Amino acid sequence: xxxxxHRAERQNLIARSAAEIIxxxxxxxxxxxxxxxxxxxxxxxxxxxxxxxxxxxxxxQEWINQQALSREQRATRRKRGLAAARARMLSLMPVNRxxxxxxxxxxxxxxxxxxxxxxxLGMSLRITGARERFSGDLQQAVADGEIPAxxxxxxxxxxxxxxxxxxxxxxxxxxxxxxxxxxVTLIDDCLNRLQSGRGLPL
Length: 202
Description:
Number of helices: 9
CATH superfamily of the domain at 78-196: Tetracycline Repressor, domain 2
Helix content: over 70%
Largest sheet: none
Mean pLDDT: 88
CATH topology of the domain at 78-196: Tetracycline Repressor, domain 2
């Protein structure tokens, strides 16, 4: 295996192990020793790839975001308009164990990032990217005649993002109420309102 590929594979293994620990135990549990034990590597190897606790948290979040983006791209391949928007929402909302873990990690990361201007900027850029992708779906839906031409795309995009973040956070607090079925119902109701021209609550 080429050296660069071996390095990338180890970094991914360490990031995945750190992500599992953060999801289970919070950021405090993601020590070098715990990550080494979870990954099957030595503590020295983990320390070689990460400069400190904040570096682990940041790179783990980057890994989670890349996993989410790749899944989103797979889910929306060969889809457009409202079908793409729906698939995008379902690829991101906590409808299964993997996505629930991702949201747990995301919430832990957000709580630690509040005090860092650089981390806040990174979060803002990621939200902007998501807003652009959803906006593109809705613009295509207008072009295809799925939703009325006078639809306020920016407002509708924001509602989808608010639904995504709000339901995802609420699911972690009350998973019995926010079941997969209920999450899908909320998405479909939102998109049906758009399609019918009834508008969306802001």
